[in-house]
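Researcher: Next sequence.
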Amino acid sequence: MILNLSSFAQDYYYCQGRRIDLTKREDKIAVILNEHKYQKEYILSEFAPYISDGDKLIYDESFVVHLNLVRNNAKEKLEYYKTKLTGKNNLVKFVTCVYYGESERVTQIPTDEFIVKLRSISEKYLLDYINTRNNVRIIGNVVDNLTFLLKSGDGVEKNALELSDVYFKSGIFEFAEPNFLYPEYCLLNYTPNDTYYGSQWALNNTGQSVPTEGSTSGGDATSVNGITDADMDVNLAWDYTTGNSAVKVGVVDTGIDSTHPDFQAVNHLLPGFDAYWNKWGVPRDSGSHGTCTAGLIGGVLNNNLGIAGIAPSCRLMSVRIFNSSGSTTDNAIIRGFDTARVNGIDILSNSWGGGTETTAKTNAINNAANNGRNGLGCIILFASGNDGRNPPNYPSYLANVICVGASTTHDQKKTTGTGNQYWWGGNYGESPNGDIDVVAPTVCYSIDVQSTGGYNTASGTAGNYYSTFNGTSCSCPNAAGVAALVLSVNTSFTRLQVTEYLLRGAEKIDNFPYSTDKTYGKWNPYFGYGRVNAYNSVRLAAGYDVTPPSVNHNNVFSTSSTYPVSVTAEIVDQNGSSVPVSGNNRPVLFFSKKKGAGNWSVYDSVYASTNSGNNFTFYIPGSGWETQVRYYLRARDNSGNQTYFPKGAPDTLFVCYYAIGSFVQESIRIPSFTIPSYSMKVSSNVSAGSYIILNTVARIYLRHNYDGYFHLTLWGSNSNSNTNRVCLFSKNGGSGYNISGAWVSDTASKFWRESSPPYSNGSFKSEYVFRIFNGLNANGNWKATYYNDQTSGSGTCDSIRVYFTRTNGTSAPCARLDYISDSVVYFPEMIVDTADFYLKNTGTANLTVSSYYFTGQYASNFSVTNKPPSEIAPNDSGLFKIRLNPVTDNPFNKKINVSVNSDYYENAVLNIETNDPSKPVFKVSQQTDNPLPVKLESFTGTVLRKDVKLIWVTLFEINNSGFEIERQSGGRWEIAGFVKGAGNTNSRISYEFTDKNLESGKYLYRLKQIDFNGNFIYLELGKELEVGIPAKYDISQNYPNPFNPVTKIDYDLPFIGRVDLIIYDVSGRLIKNLVSEIKNAGYYTVEFNASNLASGVYFYRITVNDFTAVKRMVLIK
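Model: Next structure:
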């Protein structure tokens, strides 16, 4: 026997022309056996005497075993087992490294089998030739007659990585990839803990008590009361369909306990297929996982026992891809999909994933999606993964499948800090490979393998059900069950039709903006299109729209301004149509205030002040310092279908929040603690003072030898397990080391995946928002939790510094300026008279009046005839009696000065000096009848890469000095530029202004129209403009072109990467390296000076990550 260690030399393979680099596991090795088909017992007995240090030998297949190593010393153990096993009955073919998948939960073993695809069947002789040269034989075809499963002969020392590389580099094959073996059910997206019983809240959440299987040591509650309506509304969908027996749902998993009482109905279970052993008639589910997933989809309804599946009238088929030891291979997976397609399975539920991509597996999935159901297409759903990071795992992100993430009993994104299971979170987000599509409930009651054979090990019938089946393994079949109900409405629907109804019917949950426009409506990276809703989707499929509109809103920030607070929202119906702008169905904002130590007021409401298309602007009345505000929005479509933003409002868990005051920053430091492997560690407590949190930012210093292993969560002081934890970091960075001073905040523009360890001083989004702390008292103990579910990886968390923003406790008045009437005195038809003006104080301290005076062209014509109060108490007002004095030459019939948001004309301004911090001089316009000085026809804004172009048109202008352009980002207005006005004109005039080189973010714009006397009005754009990172790689044609001697080149980067931009001539000679460095995602412009070059044709080429592009330019001198 010869043992080969050369597999250490190659840790990669090629997929779709891309090199896939693998990371070795230090806690496992594998032994590949010669093909003598020894029995399991014989193999284990032969190896037993040589197993050292408590290593555990696992039988995976008749030709594969692997060892779980106690000391994480794979390289050393390879040498050891080589020595010990040499010459042992010619049993061992070779020993090989073992690798991580895309997820660190997944183990991939390169055996002696690999899969190749010829470009043409006429080249089969080349396959036979290279097989003979390498002692490799054909086991059989995979999917079609061009694709082959190959196996090396006894004594061949190369593993599948090395052999597939040899075949791929021969140039004969379209692809050549390992047939990886995935042991110990590692592809399954389930993470069990303990057993509890509960109820099916995911079908109809009434706020009932729900078991969580959580651990109090990690901050979890062992049971919680859900939030009413945080469910899939399956009970409402059942009024229209419980499924259709013509719809066949394939459960691609570990098998189904076919004798379970809750699966017993006529023709309910179709004959199963064992894809691993390529035979019909699936044996008893040895993994329990498949029975749980199938139970969520198709548990029998109304049989006086157990649970109800979501689509109980549909039929189920088990497609088993795992053997009894928990192992599977790419070939078994491919065979499973091919068999399901050929046998007309309509829907395929896949609660597994996380391995690296292979072409053959992707092709099998796409073949079923595109060609299944006689060309209508199989509806394929995959779990996104349980690593809690962005992006989803392969194969869930493939374009032709539906990627399903996880939501909780409280309609939150499932992370390590939500859902009361600290040890996992659902994968989310988007990447160049693909996106999350939807989320569905997790931690649900389901059917289990009977008696002691399943997750619930209670004996007898008590063990037939499991109350806390979890992971995205639970979410995926929940979504698959709803997809089955949708297809039951019309079994002739195509895959794309079912997908559209499923995703358009999803509810926009939690307090997150859904700001991205995608194929099926509004989308965000945390929830995709939202949480699955069976009632909405089933009715859409039947032609009835019961789905409410989408509300896209970013919470306003706390502010020091006592002016009214602007709240903007984009509101659009699920089909893209506009919502009503008048009547009872128009959007409305509800708000409540708490002033100082007082109580929260009852909710008041305001309608939108303006709207431009689907963009609405509301104003919450101004308040004094030390005021807290809660608010939420209600939106209805033309049919009255209604939603709230946030979805759970007015429950205080979900309402939007801000405060008004003068701000200071507090901080706490969570001290150093060691972070071990394969365990959960809680830091020591650190106490925070008593103050209300308005914003939270954290900074992490942590040393760790494998960042892709662990979760790091901040645990706050409040006792509500649904709002006291935020996951800062979740298994990002792969095998990279350390986190060196990285900032974590809600306002960061990047996800962790957009950078790499050690993340030095970068700024990143947390895995769930800090916003859930806003409005809570910081008082009490804070700590951090670290969790590593791998047997290796350790380090030290040196510190986590947490910064809180709070008010400083200083109260202040607020001179009310909520409505036009608050700052206007009108003298109708220029009748000489006295008008009463009341200055109102809506603040939290006395409003002082130190002086008052008139300014403006006709200031001398106005006077105050009483003595106004010098102090105005909160919620009181002070009277100013203003007289318009007659004069013989009063020319009020002339067009003078600027109007203030009305159809009347300003002739003077009463200036009242106060101690309002935002309005130290409160201005009151004195108006008479006259037209507006500037009539605005239109005002639009367009984003052009990292610039914003504003265009506005006036119909006429009177006394117009010009327009000051103001930009708001982060709650503060600042001047962006000035454009000179036309003075006096009756002509239509178009203006434009370009705001250049903006950073990524969202911006509001307004025009401050100023007359020659200094009076002004604001003209709002009415919508938020987003300067984002590019959606794709691109490089522009140089400009100008032809050029002499200077030209510019623009290029766009959607992701960080090393950029090489070179200039070369027609002979290929390098002229200049324009760029050769790592660049962050963004828009870039580079200048090329060719003053020392001769006229002619030149080329420029950009290379970054997997993107390469070449363009031609012409120099003419």
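Model: The chain has eleven helices and 69 strands. The first helix runs from residue 40 to 47.
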